[in-house]
Amino acid sequence: MCELLGVSCNKETNISFSFKILKEHSNRNYQGWGYAHYSMNKWIVEKEPIMAMTSEKVGKIITNPLMFEGKMFISHIRYASVGRKTIENTHPFMRELFSKNWIFAHNGHLNKKKMLEDMKKGFLQTSLESYQPKDESDLELAFCIIMEEMRKLGKKATDREIIDKLNEITGRIAEYGSFNFLLSDGEKMYVYSKGNRLYYVERKPPYTEAIKSESKEVELLMKPVEEKAIVIATVPLTRNEKWIPFKNNTIYRI
Where are the domains of the chain? Predict the structure, then answer.
């Protein structure tokens, strides 16, 4: 099963601790890694169709703290169930909508063949006019459908209209399999869970003890009081924090 990691912060924050833990899980999700982080009003995307644990690029990135300074972060390690092991099929994906770049990453599995058949018959009640998948990933197809539906809403759509539309279209897509995803424009993040669990934890000072994973420990006691973050993961990353599962079949705005 692929794994997701998302971090949404109210201030520019270094989130390398969580990414290092996710990297350790790549021995069972070894067919690709990728991340996108939003800093200085733009997305920076890095990804490769190889295991994160063996990637020279990951090693260089982790030792450069500036690569993990940002307010929004979406990462993915891949176990390929559909699609070749290529950079085009590696998450996260990015598409532009109304002069803003959106990032999408997913874990789960969708019946792509059935989705395409139902789109042709009109059963899925959507079409791909402005967005087309670049490769054969089932999840990139889902992303293109989501972007197409948001495009139809128009540039002036309110956040409530976007959430309602996402609930509508993701509910239809989720009928084709398990469908967990993170979606962000750099200012807000949308989270959806159906099938596999997604968990979150809120971190905000003051901290009373170091945060611990199975192999790492980080001291957060000196963080500024006003700084806070929401961390989202497929598998809880730490053992001394309270990770809360998202409810199924509901869009959350983080």
Answer: 3-253
DSSP 27: G
Q: Which of 2, 7, 182, 251 is catalytic?
A: 2
Angle between helices 138-153 and 159-173 (to 10 degrees): 150
Tens-place pLDDT, residues 105-144? 988 889 989 988 998 888 777 778 889 888 777 888 999 9
Q: Is 9 a catalytic residue?
A: no
The letter for the amino acid at 43 is: W
DSSP letter string, 86-134: SSTTSSPEEEEETTEEEEEEEEEEE-HHHHHHHHHHTTT----SS---S
Residue 51 CA to residue 54 CA, distance in Å, equals 6
The CATH number of the structural domain formed by 3-253 is 3.60.20.10
CA distance 236 to 5: 10
